[in-house]
Amino acid sequence: MGHSILSLLVPIGVIAMVVLTKRVALSLFSGIVLGAWLVSDSLWGTLSVIYAKLSAVFYSNTPTFSLNTNSLYIFAFLVLLGVLTQVISASGASASFVLKARQFVKSARQCEFVALFAGLVIFLDDYFNALIVGQVSKSLNDAHQSSRERLAYIIDSTCAPVCMLMPISSWGAYIVGVMQNEGIEDSFALLLASITSNYYAWFALIAVFLTILWQINLPAMVRYRNVGVQDLSPIANLQSPKAPVWLLLSSVGILILSTCALIFYTGYTNAPSGDLLDLLKNTQTSFSLFIGGLISLGTTLILARKYVGALIPLVVQGFKSMQGAILVLILAWAIGSLIRDDLQTGVYLASLVGHFQGVGEWLGVVLFVISGFIAFSTGTSWGAFAIMLPIGVSMSAGLGGDLVLVIAAILSGAVYGDHASPISDTTILSATGAGCSVQSHFLTQLPYASLSALCALVAFLVASLSLSKMLGFLVGLGLLLGLFFLLKQRH
Q1: What's the rounded Cα separation, in Å, for the pair 147 and 154?
Q2: Under a CB-based contact definition with an 8 Å cutoff, are residues 452 and 416 in contact?
Q3: Considering only CA atoms, which of 304, 296, 323, 314 is closest in space to residue 136?
Q4: Which helix (H) or strand (E) holds 42?
């Protein structure tokens, strides 16, 4: 269906259902049913497609049976993280951390800046960033009445942009690999050159900074506050005896150090050469998260054994706290495969680029919009990179456009589409890390991300027409500062 407008029906229908029903799991499953019906010709065929897409998240039968270890490791890590959170909370270490941190962090603004700083520092991988920053920041944010949705927005709108702007990351390695497959020489140099023109990534980070600095709460952020959150009480009784703060710090520290070490180790053992980009390209992040989670949980259980009671209830509660996120992630991956491989929505959207061959001066704007819609519809910025980078490079060569600006526009659009999509895995994992519902995170982040995207769109337009990337940046930045200053005045 890569040449039919019907390929847009499923992603648009899912997004509409999420907005109308506020039920992400139901919307995703309905989208899977609709997509299966579109690509099959009978009831049995529809059921077979549904089963095939859901089962593929766990295992594959082509050509031989094999487990989908990447997704299984992620699910297992989420359970480990849920149990780890329960153990730390039950031990009282979270409350001790808040009591200690209150000596230095005295407001919602300051605790949100802590989350922003943590997100900027952890730039190796977006999954790692999204889950770890939430683990560090939740209890402190709760103590200062900063909502979980604000934390999820800070996490999500920091992790992907910072991974994009730091070329020594899993994102940078992947993008360079895509460009190298197209025979582009000096791919890493091109990626470096595109960083200053990656307007959305810069504006998204600046928007987070301004949102924290001026404590801007858009209407959606006010309306959806701690939706469905049940665990706002780890600091309810701060005066009772608690585990020392070093228990939480050592737990998180071991998790970060062991996972980082395993990321580099798995990259080193799988890379064809000792080159750093090859190493990052061949890392096994999901495996590293799983083993790092095991090491951290095992260590924490030993350190916390005299502060916690029965372990089984904590394990059960930890699993329950993550079952919603796991269900949504299963459905998101299943519908992502259906949209990408069967409906071929990305292929259809990419084919629209051909209609803009005669407007070279608008090329950056066009590629930004289409890349954003591909990532928005498919829930993956990496998929948009793979589809649009080859197209953008060939169009730039044919029209004589600025290759650096073309690459920056594709990367920017894809990251915005990822931020704006409720079926994006980073949207789901950021909500999971912050401990809020996926639908409330999607609805609250969308206005902030869209303001940044509007400024980026204007910046690409100015840069394309003026042939000055710096002028585009300055105009877009000025617009962003103006919009957020107006929002500050309203508050």
Answers
A1: 11
A2: yes
A3: 296
A4: none
